[in-house]
Amino acid sequence: MAPIARIIFRPIITGTENIPRSGRVIIASNHLSFIDSMVIPLVTPRRVQYLAKSTYFTGTGIKGYLTRTWFESIGAVGIERGAGQAAQDALDAGRSILEADSAFAIYPEGTRSLDGRLYKGRTGVAWLALTTGAVVVPVGLIGTQEIQPVGTRVPRVRKITVNFGEPIDVSRHGPATSGRARRQATDEIMAAIHRLSGQELAGRYNESPRQGLQGLADKVFPRERV
What we know:
By secondary structure, the protein is of the alpha/beta class. It has helices at residues 2-9, 36-43, 61-73, 85-99, 124-132, 144-147, 179-197, 212-220, and strands at residues 12-14, 25-29, 48-53, 76-79, 103-106, 135-142, 161-164. 42% of the residues are buried.
């Protein structure tokens, strides 16, 4: 589908040379639209996996089959939402993907930005990087909210930009067990995303209902501050 998507949407893609073609890589992106989780796998020059709610994989009938096939084809891995063990299982799933020397995508903001601003990052992304030794490639998405605005079902044809930044090695901040190291590493990643996306900074956490790995990770690593 990548060639078809490029013909239809004509995305501007920069910095793909910054993505290591092998080894452990975290793709850390801003989050503007549901469509982001389709854009990133389609434009990244290696297979990228990410976590999605388990209900996408358990539907029945033709619709359930098509939904499950689609999400499996773009590298999604189903997880249960919740606190406690579910949160730890989500972190462990992301860790397993990285320890298999794969590329893993995550939204440090935790959920979509409904007002277009860039929100403060949560520290699950840093924990994964510091625990697995993965490098982090920051991504700035521009215009994806125009393809599928909140509340719409049918995507619209709009031109978008995907900017991949230089890989970041966050190991110098300290061990994964240090809250200070996780906070500083996350702030470095978010600063890079900000440079690539050009968004206005919100200066606070996004309080919308959180989904996926980062939201679950908040149950394990709440809002850490230095």
